[in-house]
Design a protein that fits this description.
By secondary structure, the protein is α+β, with helices and mostly antiparallel strands. The protein has 17 helices and five strands.
């Protein structure tokens, strides 16, 4: 096509650009429900975008040497708020309708000899615009993803420092965290290799399980905060495979994110102490690591063993504590304990059952016995005024 013929066809297109833009808006009104649902101001901005799209095509058709004008420039006529409202799919729909209108009306606009050339130019231009749109939205998604990652890291850090407040609640809402209860903290080693890939798998599985999730990578430690976890062991088990080698520890469930600092403290203390229990399951509850945590200078674990294990026994009087101590001194033998206390063996069995009922720990279970021994020792120290470090 000669430059003279191109200039003539471009002049015809330019004179018809207003009509083409109006026809495009009319068709969008007919076919696009999201466009009809916009307020009048936003629809007027979309109309301006349609005019800019057609005007940019005419300018490029007149002088193709400058290259197609990409979507960043086309959408640049609209305010930033509007570009956040219009999705990539909706942008493609707008482009498609604009192309349809131009192709349908081109026979009536340019000379017959130029119709094929104009249609070919429309296809080329629209292809470049579509690729440009994808690039713009991909760049925006990357920027949003980077911002979300920074915000998520700040929130997790606030939870770990115990600085959760209403500001954290508003920030986490921006990440899509719903007002869920039953919040759980899981701690383990950062995945080997591409840590971000492992984090993405956690986010994917959380979506499938309909759980809210926040993640934070702190060196070789990965923190995962889950919302809506009704069964803590089941929830933690669903993500254990995405952590690196070593123990995976989950906290007790707390009511909401504002109360998650205590849960995070328990999970981290459990993670630090977990290597002392060689046969610990994966994942393991922080509550199951109370003796190791107490020995690793976790004051909260020591207090919990005293208040939840020793104190209920002490409140019943000296009998259960004496029976428990004698049972341990006699290597877990009921008969030997009965002889030492001058009681019947069935009396010892009854007392051991009472200890289990009051504490949740069975003295005959080796793991439970270990916990009871530590609680008994700490309780005696506490009763004699041994000061606790924080």
């Amino acid at each position: 096509m000669s430059s003279l013929n191109r200039a003539t066809a471009a002049s015809h297109l330019e004179r018809a650009s207003g009509m083409l833009a109006s026809a495009t808006i009319e068709r969008m009104q007919q076919r696009l429900s999201w466009f009809r649902g916009m307020n009048p101001q936003d629809r007027s901005w979309i109309g301006l975008v349609a005019q800019t799209f057609i005007a940019a095509f005419v300018a490029w058709f007149r002088d193709p040497g400058v290259g197609p004008v990409f979507t960043a420039d086309v959408l640049g006529t609209a305010p930033r708020e509007l570009t956040r409202k219009v999705t990539l799919h909706q942008t493609v729909e707008m482009i498609r309708i604009g192309i349809e209108v131009v192709e349908e009306r081109v026979d009536d606009i340019v000379p017959a000899a130029d119709v094929a050339t104009v249609r070919e130019a429309v296809l080329l231009y629209s292809r470049e615009i579509a690729f440009g749109a994808a690039e713009v939205y991909a760049r925006a998604a990357e920027m949003r993803g980077a911002w979300d990652a920074r915000l998520e890291a700040l929130i997790v850090d606030a939870v770990l420092r115990g600085e959760t407040d209403e500001a954290v609640r508003s920030r986490v809402a921006a990440l899509g965290w719903s007002e869920t209860t039953q919040v759980l903290v899981v701690v383990g080693r950062t995945p080997v290799g591409d840590a971000e890939a492992g984090v993405e798998l956690i986010r994917r599985d959380a979506r499938h399980a309909r759980l809210d999730v926040l993640t934070g990578v702190q060196g070789d430690r990965l923190i995962v905060i889950l919302g809506g976890a009704k069964d803590p062991h089941k929830a933690a088990s669903g993500f254990a495979a995405h952590f690196g080698p070593g123990p995976v520890v989950y906290s007790p469930v707390v009511p909401d994110l504002l109360a998650a600092s205590g849960a995070a403290r328990a999970a981290i203390a459990g993670y630090r102490a977990a290597p002392a229990w060689l046969d610990a399951p994966r994942p393991v509850a922080a509550e199951e690591l109370l003796p190791e945590r107490a020995l690793s200078d976790d004051a909260h674990a020591r207090r919990q063993l005293v208040t939840d294990v020793f104190a209920p026994l002490a409140d019943t009087g000296p009998v259960l504590l004496e029976t428990l101590a004698a049972f341990f001194e006699n290597g877990g033998s009921v008969e030997a304990t009965a002889r030492m206390l001058f009681v019947h063996a069935n009396t010892v069995r009854y007392r051991l059952r009472r200890i289990t009922e009051l504490t949740g720990y069975a003295p005959s279970n080796p793991r439970h016995a270990y916990t009871l021994r530590i609680a008994l020792t700490l309780g005696r120290l506490h009763a004699h005024g041994e000061p606790e470090s924080e």
